[in-house]
Structures
1.
Amino acid sequence: MKYNKQLFGNEAASETTTGFDKGVYCDFSANAVKALAGKDILLAVWNAEGTAISAIAGQQSLKLNRSADSIEVTTKDTGDGWKAYIAGSKEWSIDTDGLYINTDASMQALSTAFENGDPVCIKVYNKKTKKSMFGGLAVITDFPLEAPYDDSMTYSISLKGQGKLVDLSSNPVTPDTLPA
């Protein structure tokens, strides 16, 4: 690897060399350096008109579920008495929860969609890299609010995908609209 020398106050700063003691103990290509922090991954929702996108307020967790049905294709000549399967139809869903902030545009959009039974257009994105990760159309299947006596008011939302979940890392859109 080539790195700029970090010789502060020296004209040789633009000279390149193998730095960091030749990478002996600072391996910037290691998988740990490339790992994503969960705190940077957010769920956003478009308004009903598709003109504004907002990160869902107060988020504390996000779980993206992807699964496929299994279709049994076992026959008498399938090897050694073991069953065989192929993948069937796929589906996706998202579960998120957090602190309930009823005045936020995202909560208002989700509440309206839930009350009307309308689908919502969602996007999962990395706020640190400012890159979209996934997007799709979903219906809200569960939206409870909890207000315990001795804690903050919270929400949970379960979204069930309608159609394909688009991998926006592999299929980027231009422009890549993200919440402000």
2.
Amino acid sequence: MIRYIETISVEQGEAIPLAAYHLRRVRETLGEEPDFLRSEVQLVRLFRANRPAEEAGQYKLRLVYSAAGIEEVSVTPYTYDISRVRRLQLVELPSDYRYDRKYLDRELLDRIAASLPDHETVALLTQGGRVTDTTFTNVCLRRDGRWETPDVPLLEGTRRRSYLDAGAISAVPVSVSELLAGRWREISLINAMNPLGRMMLPITSATLFVAPDESPESLDEAPIE
């Protein structure tokens, strides 16, 4: 049986700002509304039952589930500092690779993450010459004061969808060639745990580079500053 994960931010006590988006993704993943995960009240109960003694401003509620029900629940203080990311390495995915559901099996994505040179570098994934996302976040790019996101991500994250619904960002094609040519000046990584702006980098030759075994284009040839 296929297993899936849902990673949920719990903040300011027991608030779950993206609860409706997580529940909608579960429904879309399973093709129905499951009795075991259909309301925010159920999410809060799962959090309360597994909350650690350690106090934190933000917790990560992680669920492993399948069509049969919830298999694992964990709650941990969220301590990862995404602002420590300093570089993005472009990595081209196989053309037939799909991760359109939040599968527990992330073998290829985990392998890519493990291959990076250090913990300050994140893989910026591309497929068919277009930017999709990273191994653990969606991507937002700033151009002329506007925030844009790749229109075809590997996985449509809950925060990305909430920003699109609110009109805070717009979905556009993001080609590698245009990215390297400097169409966008700044990048921010977003996911359920990290809002827009928590991690921001200027797009320069010091922060964006091509993986050693990739050679579609060279940053040395790209007019980014």
